[in-house]
């Protein structure tokens, strides 16, 4: 018998759980959704009466939260109550790369997932559908099921894999108009129950079902393919710089081939974000664990190329600034891993900055959405320098014009639209001469910048 879902609990109020549940709540006013998190300040921020101060910045999200919160969308730290009451539980906790023990730097750390499973097993007194929303290594559902089924309290658990394909910065649009919704599982009723939720706003032909392992692996594979495209075009960008070809022209020419397609061919200083690197490392780790070394080596190369791109961008700055940046002031425009998000996880900017700091550059950083403390925390996390040294060498400013005063060079590290609207004539006046711009996002117009008198470098030209 199919049971209609009336109450949902989502464990994890992060970049995935928060926006996903907000959109489900908006589209399904009859379902009561409680998003829980053990991080009290994060929940408090989700409950902030000023929706402009939500913990996550996503275009369109504040309006949706304002509409649904208090009606059928709730944010809470009472994890037990929400689990107990729910018919369906989404697990949206973080699965970072392990930074200790076996698989350090490669495997996904599943301790948060396991903790969730144990909590659910302990609290549940009625049957539950448990949905994996976080990106997980293939076969995680088996471990989840094992923990859940061994509680001995007679509760039935059905596990579904329903990976999230939203991209940050466009999360709301991606959730409202998904290319597809993927549901992997074994129990037909559980699959139908989850599909029925999405059918409130997604057409049936876009909701596809697979077995659990295909669903888990599809998520890793989708991210690996997307990252591979970026590394592929970035590898060509270096060749363009040597040969006189222009990477944008090459991307346009190949992208018009309908078999290749035009998306995800923008050369850049390197991909970042919480997913691409982690998921490929995961894929590589899994392949190696099955002794598939050729498969592992193949995908590992995508990451090596990405690391190379970040280093060579920083190297180019050093070489161009007469082989030394020691004591020179370099303004970094952008810190987020892409525009329209305040997320900095694995942002290329962090690594470019670290490289320049190793050469004793003095950095002044401006990002329209990333808080000052976050920028210092990202640098401190690398442990390359002491926090005191980081604060001595790095200044974070909230005024983009302040950043460029007496700067030798500007490095554009995130493609924020506002950078295009700046008064670049004034910026040049404020800088030391010759004034250099290193455009890691190919954001600005070479003709205009050179017309003003900048020495302008863009990736792949
Ligand atoms: C990605 C996937 O797109 C999404 O489906 C998945 O659910 C999570 O991971 P996200 O990391 O939010 O989403 O951002 P995405 O737009 O994919 O960009 C990732 C990185 O690649 C960014 O640093 C971006 O700047 C870079 N990128 C992307 C390029 O350098 N060039 C491109 O052409 C596209
Ligand atoms: P993602 O990008 O995958 O959404 P985030 O790190 O933004 O990742 O969010 C994951 C959230 O999950 C964090 O806010 C974290 O506090 C929360 N979390 C992790 N483990 C648990 C748990 N066992 N119970 C409740 N919340 C958890």
Report on this structure.
- By secondary structure, this protein is an alpha/beta fold.
- The chain has 18 helices and 14 strands.
- The longest helix is centred in the middle third of the chain and has 32 residues, at 212-243.
- It is globular, with a radius of gyration of 23 Å.
- The structure holds uridine-5'-diphosphate-xylopyranose (UDX) and adenosine-5'-diphosphate.
- Adenosine-5'-diphosphate (ADP) is lined by residues 11-17, 36-39, 42, 79, 92-94, 112, 115-116, 134, 274.
What share of residues is helical? 40-55%
Would you report the number of β strands? 14
Question: Which small-molecule ligands are present, each listed once?
Answer: uridine-5'-diphosphate-xylopyranose, adenosine-5'-diphosphate
Number of helices: 18
Structural class: alpha/beta
- Return Rg in Å: 23 Å
Strand content: 5-15%
What is the overall pLDDT average? 95
Shape: globular
Query: Ranges with pLDDT <50 over ≥5 residues?
Result: none
Terminal Cα span:
62 Å
Strand arrangement across the biggest beta sheet: 3-2-1-4-5-6-7-8
Biggest sheet, in brief? Answer: 8 strands, mixed
């Amino acid at each position: 018998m199919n049971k209609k879902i009336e109450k949902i609990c989502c464990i994890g109020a992060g970049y995935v759980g928060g926006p996903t549940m907000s959109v489900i709540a908006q589209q399904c006013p009859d379902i009561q959704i409680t998003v829980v998190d053990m991080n009290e300040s994060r929940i408090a921020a989700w409950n902030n009466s000023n929706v402009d101060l939500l913990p996550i910045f996503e275009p369109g999200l504040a309006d949706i939260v304002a509409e649904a919160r208090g009606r059928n969308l709730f944010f809470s730290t009472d994890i037990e109550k929400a689990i107990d009451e729910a018919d369906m539980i989404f697990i949206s906790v973080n699965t970072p790369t392990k930074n200790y023990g076996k698989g350090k730097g490669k495997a996904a750390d599943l301790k948060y997932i396991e903790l969730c499973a144990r909590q659910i097993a302990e609290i549940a007194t009625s049957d539950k559908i448990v949905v994996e929303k976080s990106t997980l290594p293939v076969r995680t559902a088996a471990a989840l099921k094992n923990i859940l089924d061994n509680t001995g309290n007679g509760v039935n658990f059905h596990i579904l894999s329903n990976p999230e394909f939203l991209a940050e910065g466009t999360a709301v649009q991606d959730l409202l108009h998904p290319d597809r919704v993927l549901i992997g599982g074994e129990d037909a009723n559980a699959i139908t129950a989850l599909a029925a939720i999405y059918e409130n706003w997604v057409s049936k032909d876009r909701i596809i079902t697979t077995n659990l392992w295909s669903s888990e692996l599809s998520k890793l594979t989708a991210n690996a393919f997307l990252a591979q495209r970026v590394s592929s075009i970035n590898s060509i960008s270096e060749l363009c710089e040597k040969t006189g070809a222009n990477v944008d022209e090459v991307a346009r020419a190949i992208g018009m081939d309908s078999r290749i397609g035009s998306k995800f061919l923008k050369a850049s200083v390197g991909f970042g974000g919480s997913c691409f690197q982690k998921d490929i490392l995961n894929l590589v780790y899994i392949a190696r664990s099955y002794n598939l070394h050729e498969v592992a080596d193949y995908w590992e190369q995508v990451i090596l190329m990405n690391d190379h791109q970040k280093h060579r961008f920083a190297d180019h700055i050093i070489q161009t600034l007469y082989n030394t940046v020691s004591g020179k002031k370099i303004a970094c425009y952008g810190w987020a891993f892409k525009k329209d998000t305040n997320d900095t996880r694995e942002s290329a900017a962090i690594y470019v900055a670290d490289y320049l700091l190793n050469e004793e550059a003095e950095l002044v950083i401006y990002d329209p959405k990333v808080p000052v403390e976050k920028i210092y925390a990202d640098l401190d996390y690398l442990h390359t320098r002491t926090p005191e040294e980081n604060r001595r060498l790095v200044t974070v400013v909230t005024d983009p014009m302040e950043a460029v005063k007496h700067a030798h060079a500007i490095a554009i590290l995130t493609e924020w639209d506002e950078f295009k609207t700046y008064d670049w004539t004034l910026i040049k006046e404020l800088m030391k001469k010759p004034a250099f711009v290193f455009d890691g996002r190919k954001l600005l117009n070479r003709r205009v910048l050179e017309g003003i008198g900048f020495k302008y470098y863009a990736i792949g030209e």
